[in-house]
């Protein structure tokens, strides 16, 4: 049936993700030529991707195989923690990698001094520590609430806002803190990356040699691509969709047009063809 098809599809995707990340990780670790600052951050990113892809997929596959739709309290707690821990770690690593590219392209002669081993280790450790602190706060706030309503989570994994809906206490404070905390991390990362790429773009445009221009541009393309994939859905969901919703769902509605006509005292915004 449909469950068997979904099981095969998601198992294939999960195995491809694990295999690809593990192979690249093994190649980078085993080759001394790849022991560079960028490769160090890439290894951290690969570990994050391995963990992030394993937060909900194994449980989802187990539920499909067994035909059940339950999760233990401990499993739910782990999903909340690791979802925000690894998600914010990935976001911060993208920011650090943007700074690494800035140092490599804008200050090539000082690059080995700026991005020495100690700095790289501190930057990587900082991303993991900051993210663990961020996730611990959110998880602790979520699971200190009293829950006395339904135990059905209206989502495909345990996350803060679907869980908060089940609480039987005032959730205003935790929702405000969670929304602010979750929003600050990607926004801070984005605004920290932006100056790096502005400076990189200016430096690339000033290059006289076509070979140097191409080498510098190709160096940043891979990182910029994954950053766009990471932030793109956030922008689409939070900016584009809210902008289009009034046009899609309301302004084409006859009752809404009538309300606008009464409000403005003018003709309908959209006229139908007869």
Give the structure's gist in a few sentences:
The chain has 274 residues and is an all-alpha fold. It contains ten helices and no strands. It has helices at 2-30, 37-52, 57-66, 73-106, 111-114, 117-143, 160-164, 172-206, 210-250, 254-264.
Estimate what percentage of residues fall within beta strands.
under 5%
- Total domains: 1
End-to-end C-alpha gap: 47 Å
Counting helices, strands and paired strands, the structural category is mainly alpha
Main beta sheet strand tally, sense and closure? none
Average residue pLDDT? 81
CATH class annotation: Mainly Alpha
- Shape label: globular
Q: How many DSSP helices?
A: 10
What string gives the helices and strands in order? HHHHHHHHHH
Structure in words:
This is G-protein coupled receptors family 1 profile domain-containing protein. It is found in: Cell membrane. Keywords: Cell membrane, G-protein coupled receptor, Membrane, Olfaction, Receptor, Sensory transduction, Transducer, Transmembrane, Transmembrane helix. One of its GO terms (molecular function) is olfactory receptor activity. InterPro entries: GPCR_Rhodpsn, GPCR_Rhodpsn_7TM, Olfact_rcpt. The chain has 274 residues and is mostly helical. It has a single domain (1-265), classed as Up-down Bundle (Rhopdopsin 7-helix transmembrane proteins), CATH 1.20.1070.10. The protein contains 10 helices and no strands. Helix 4 packs antiparallel against helix 6 (117-143), helix 4 packs parallel to helix 8 and helix 4 (73-106) crosses helix 9. The longest helix has 41 residues, at 210-250. The chain is globular and about 65 Å long.
């Amino acid at each position: 049936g449909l469950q068997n098809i979904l099981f095969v599809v998601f198992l294939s995707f999960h195995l491809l993700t694990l295999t690809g990340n593990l192979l690249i990780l093994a190649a980078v670790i085993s080759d001394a030529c790849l022991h560079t600052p960028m490769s160090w951050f890439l290894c951290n990113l690969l570990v994050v991707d391995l963990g992030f892809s394993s937060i909900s997929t194994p449980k989802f596959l187990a539920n499909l195989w067994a035909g059940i739709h339950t999760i233990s309290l401990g499993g739910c707690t782990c999903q909340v923690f690791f979802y925000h821990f690894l998600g914010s770690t990935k976001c911060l690593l993208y920011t650090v990698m943007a700074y690494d590219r800035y140092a490599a392209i804008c200050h090539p002669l000082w690059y080995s001094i700026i991005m020495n081993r100690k700095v790289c280790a501190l930057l990587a450790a900082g991303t993991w520590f900051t993210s663990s602190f961020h996730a611990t706060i959110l998880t602790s706030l979520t699971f200190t609430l009293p829950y006395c309503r339904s135990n059905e989570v209206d989502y495909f994994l345990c996350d803060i806002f679907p869980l908060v809906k089940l609480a039987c206490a005032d959730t205003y404070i935790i929702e405000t803190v969670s929304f602010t905390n979750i929003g600050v991390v990607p926004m801070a990362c984005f605004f920290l990356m932006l100056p790096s790429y502005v400076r990189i773009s200016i430096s690339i445009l000033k290059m006289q040699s076509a070979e140097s221009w191409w080498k510098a541009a190709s160096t940043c393309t891979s990182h910029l691509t994954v950053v766009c994939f990471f932030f793109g859905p956030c922008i689409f969901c939070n900016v584009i969709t809210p902008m289009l919703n009034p046009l899609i769902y309301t302004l084409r509605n006859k009752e809404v047009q009538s309300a606008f006509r009464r409000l403005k005292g003018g003709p309908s915004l959209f006229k139908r063809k007869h």
